[in-house]
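Example 3.2
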Amino acid sequence: MQEPRFPRIPSEQMDPRQQEVAASIASGPRGEVKGPFLALLHHPDLADHLQQLGEHLRFGTGLPPELIELAVLITARHWDCQYEWFAHQRIALNTTALDPAVIDAIAHGKPLPGMPDEQRAACDFCTELLRAGEPGQRAYDAILHRYGRRGVLDLLALCGYYGLLAMVLNTARIPLPDGTPAPLPPKRRP
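Structure, written as tokens:
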């Protein structure tokens, strides 16, 4: 296991701004400072802005929880982010109606099994966005038709936000909890 590049800052060593941001994160829906925010607290203003954006994207959009978690999982898989996958696979399995076979297919890069049309549309949108830099017209139209421009922007922002967090987690080398095996198999690279 590689050493984290951004060590956890003990609360007694935090400056006042770091303490303020840590308290804000811990008092919100996350309940504690963990994952990417362990690294981001080294830049408390950035951490604060990102945690507010993340809170909106996870808990304040009009998108169904299944679509939110699909966007996160597809993004985590794209970036090979073990920590993000570990955290959100559990959320997806425990708090949404996502089929475990869909989650497994995303993890292993297999064709997706049958799924509701809105979930398929979100998968296509996010996958195309991450592969090509924009979704194809059919995927775009499917999300636009179901959720409007606001839904399109929410889904774009979810992929962008969780892509940023994946890069933070990977660069900072935030470890999985002790004894947790890597949940994602290695990605086949060309």
